């Protein structure tokens, strides 16, 4: 598979998924991971939301470096992402929340009805993405660097 083909495959796969495991680090250096709902843009920017009272939100206020994994099974495909998370504010935040309400309507309809939920929006600009596949025909693992 060429790199261009791998990038196309990766983008299609990412858009078919709704959840990622997001890893952050707290102020004391302790790693933590949580599932987030996300979407990805054509330029590989990932967006996710979290409540302000979560550990991941607190961690991101101390350290913006994150790792994400999309595709934890049962299929033989996984995408690993590393990058920097940035808070999204103002009109961009409203645009992204609108996109979430459209793309992930069933999920956010539930959460937005619960009183007291105050969401923050983050975008992750990856500096490293790797596609992992098990090639059944060759009986081998294949890692392809996307970014």
UniProtKB/TrEMBL annotation:
GO terms, molecular function: coenzyme F420 binding; oxidoreductase activity, acting on the CH-CH group of donors
Keyword Oxidoreductase: yes
Matches recorded under Gene3D superfamilies: Electron Transport, Fmn-binding Protein, Chain A (2.30.110.10)
Entry keyword annotation includes Oxidoreductase: yes
InterPro entries (alphabetical): F420H2_bilvrd_red/Heme_oxyg (IPR052019), Pyridox_Oxase_N (IPR011576), Split_barrel_FMN-bd (IPR012349)
Example of a GO cellular component annotation carried by this entry: cytosol
Keywords on record: Oxidoreductase
Domain called Pyridoxamine 5'-phosphate oxidase N-terminal: residue spans: 12-131
Protein's name in the database: Pyridoxamine 5'-phosphate oxidase N-terminal domain-containing protein
């Amino acid at each position: 598979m060429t790199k261009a083909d791998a990038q196309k495959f990766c983008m299609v796969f990412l858009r078919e998924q709704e959840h990622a495991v997001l890893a952050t680090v707290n102020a004391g250096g302790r790693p933590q991971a949580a599932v987030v709902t996300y979407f990805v843009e054509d330029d590989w920017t990932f967006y996710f939301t979290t409540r302000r009272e979560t550990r991941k939100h607190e961690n991101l206020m101390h350290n913006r470096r994150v790792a994400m994994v999309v595709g934890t099974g049962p299929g033989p495909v996984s995408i690993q992402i590393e990058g920097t998370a940035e808070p999204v504010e103002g009109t961009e935040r409203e645009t992204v929340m609108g996109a979430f309400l459209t793309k992930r309507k069933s999920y956010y309809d539930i959460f937005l009805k619960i009183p007291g939920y105050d969401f923050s929006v983050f975008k992750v600009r990856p500096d490293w993405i790797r596609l992992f596949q098990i090639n059944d025909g060759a009986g081998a693992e294949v890692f392809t660097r996307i970014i």
